[in-house]
Write a structure and sequence with these properties.
Length: 204
Amino acid sequence: MAAANPTVFMVMVNGQVESGQFPEFNDLYCKYCFVYGQDWVPTAGLEEGISQITSKSQDIHRTLVWNFPIDITFKSTNPYGWPQIVISVYGPDVFGNDVVRGYGAVHVPFIPGRHKRTIPMFVPESTSKLQKLTSWFMGRRPEYTDPKLVAQGEGREVTRVRSQGFVTLLLNVVTKDMKKLGYDTSSLELHTSSVIDLSEGILK
């Protein structure tokens, strides 16, 4: 009876943080974490992870390849607070200190299937030239105390940021029992094979 009348739906996500484009930097690693609403509960997999350090490829693209795996399953009673994945990238500055090289976030795709996402990254900026010079000498660049703030938006309007780099994700999404609970994504099936390039803000 419970199987015929489910009270929750499932969203399963696996894939990888594939690569990054940061022309000015090398020897970078990335972290990921998920941000989701109060009705969402992870039931399997990892909510966060940290990759290996990678160097740029030797071809003309100079890509940073991580191929870092992502695997998590959620259950929920409603779509509000649909999970987002937050990516933060770090690497050494000229003094050898680890500093942030980019933050970015994107929602887990709503449509089951295989998806590719290119996330534009950004870094917080000092509010004055004096602060910028001081932070450079001290090796303490502006960064968020909690990367999850990137996905929440609250207070972001007062933060000065600068675009810096891109990160590409490959995600496979499987959903279960959404239609039985009245959430039908079939009207969006035209977009299942589309790739949303967030760096250009267009649907290809």
